Structure formats: C-alpha cells, structure tokens
Amino acid sequence: MKKLLILLIFLSSTLFAGENYELKLYEKILPIIFQTDKLVVYVDSSSKEIFKNSNIFTITSDCDKATVVIGKNLKKSCPDKPFFATSHRSFENLENSFGVFYWRNGIPNIKFNSSNIIKFNLFLPQSLKKYSH
Predict the structure, then answer these.
(1) How many CA atoms lie within 13 A of 70 on its CB side?
(2) Is the predicted pLDDT of residue 28 greater than 50, yes or no?
(3) Integer Cα distance of 65 and 110 in angstroms
(4) Rounded to the nearest 5°, which phi and psi values hold at 107?
(5) Which of 8, 23, 86, 132 has the least CB density, counted as fewest CB within 10 Å?
C-alpha cells in the first residue's frame, strides 16, 4: 500500500509538472533574449491562459506598453513590436517575428530569425543559435 501511494504521488507530480511546460520555456528564454528580468507582454487570447501564472511576465492590453507581442494572429496589432509567434505560419508570415515555439506531431519546435534578432537589438545566446536562420 505504501509503495502504491508513493507511486501515485510521483506520477501525479510528474503529470502536473509538465502542465506549464510552455510557460517555463518562455520564462527561461525570453528574459535572456531581452536581457531583462521582467517583461510586459501583449498576447493573443489563446496564449493568455499560459502567461497568467507567470512571475516574470506582466500581461498588458495596451500594445504600446508591451516589450514583446506573443501569439499567432496579431498581424495588425502592434506592428512595430518584436513578435514571438506560437505557430509556424505566423512566424513565416509576420514581418517582425524574431522567434517561434510550436508543436508539430507532438514534438516541440523552436526557431529564431537572426535578422529580426539584430533588427530589434535582441540577444540570442550561443545555446540557441543552432535554432536560428
């Protein structure tokens, strides 16, 4: 019985640990890229849920106050801000996209646009340069 209880605790903690996988990824890489501990983000409705529990990101509804725009369908929103896409199509189609995180066939993918990294004076660490083009 004791072994079963330990197994259940382990499995449930493992399952819930992955629940905020995307948020953990964003919290790890975006502060490095922007060289700041606190970021103000303007997000689309589908991404809002991911960021609401963050200690690093502050969500804003005013694009002018945002450091970065995150989402997939925000072409007309914030045209002069750096954009981190959540779909490969948005990454390819939006002029200000500097990066993307998306899932394809259950596999996480990340890419960066090196010319937009330079354009927005952002920093891409050596460990992420292999994902840029």
Answers:
(1) 26
(2) yes
(3) 26
(4) -110, 125
(5) 8
